[in-house]
Amino acid sequence: MSILLNETVKHYSPEFLHDPMKVEKYSTEYSQALALGIYTADLAYTCINNQNNSSLNILASIEALTDKLRLNSIFDKSFLVRFERNKNNLDSSLVILTEAFRKSDNY
After folding, report:
1. So where are the chain's domains?
2. At a CB cut-off of 8 Å and minimum separation 6, what does 90 contact?
3. According to the model, what pLDDT value does residue 9 have?
4. pLDDT given at position 32
5. Is the CA virtual torsion 82, 84, 89, 95 positive or negative?
C-alpha cells in the first residue's frame, strides 16, 4: 500500500499520516488492531520517503499498541533493533514489516 501511495503521490505528504500522539485514544482491542494497521502503513510510507524522525515516532506508537494487543513477541526489541538497523534500506525495511505482519496475522 505504501509503495502504491508513493507511486501515486510524487511528493511526501505528512498530512496523510495518522497522528502518533493519538495512540492512547484506542481503548478496544478492535480499534487498537485497526490503528496498528494504519500506523504500520504510515511507517512504511515514512521509510519509503526517508523520514526517519517520523518513522521513529510512529514506531513508538506501534510498540505501545503491540504491548496492549499482546503482540510483544512479534514486535519485540529484536524487531525494533532490526528495523532501526535497516531503516535506510527500503527493501529490507519492507521485508521486516511484511514478516512482522504475517506473524501477527497468524497469531
Report:
1. 2-7+28-106
2. 47, 48
3. 66
4. 95
5. positive
Per-residue burial over 19-49, b if 16 or more Cβ lie within 10 Å, else e, is ebeebeebeeeeebbebbebbbbbbbbbbbb
First CA to last CA distance, the chain: 22
Mean pLDDT by 10 residues, the chain (107 residues): 66 90 95 92 83 87 90 78 81 81 76
Give the pLDDT score at 8: 72
Cα gap 73→90, rounded to integer Å: 24
Q: 39: which residues sit within 8 A by CB, 6+ positions away?
A: 18, 20, 23, 58, 61, 62, 65
